[in-house]
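Re: [help] complex structure
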Amino acid sequence: MAIPLEQALAVMVSTFHKYSARQGDKFKLSKAELKELLTKEILGCSSIDWLSIRCIMNDLDVNKDNEVDFQEFACFLACVAMGFNDFFKDHCQKQLRKK
Amino acid sequence: MAIPLEQALAVMVSTFHKYSARQGDKFKLSKAELKELLTKEILGCSSIDWLSIRCIMNDLDVNKDNEVDFQEFACFLACVAMGFNDFFKDHCQKQLRKK
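Output below.
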């Protein structure tokens, strides 16, 4: 029986490799691969432009090899999840105040 | 239409809150809540003992408040995902060597 949290982690890995394998280093995202992944896989990034991609790449690319490896990508997703969590927390606290 | 990667991030948030809300601070995991989450949600931790929980808590609890907040939990999941990724990468490289 698959466990939701483990499935979620597997989706993180499979989504990364779906795009990283397209060109160049099979295990790293180029700028173009990162742009395509964000455009198609993160709703809020569906119309992201190249300037934003360069800023995100600059933040994520800790080892400055001009590509995003899985560790850098996982840190990015942790930050996105924190944004989701803040939204969830605010919603819960508003509900509690209404009572 | 739900997007797999966003659903995965939502599962990370909902799984955390499923256990954090049980006792004490609703938005943080106590040791007992962390043990229950790992035991039920991570297959490799189904028989984890208290000594291991204390070690994991010691690593995750960056602000030393004796609880795990969502940021600390997200960093933990990023590390687990990296383990999944290493397994996936090794598998791919073995397949390539067979060809």
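Chain A has one domain: 4-98.
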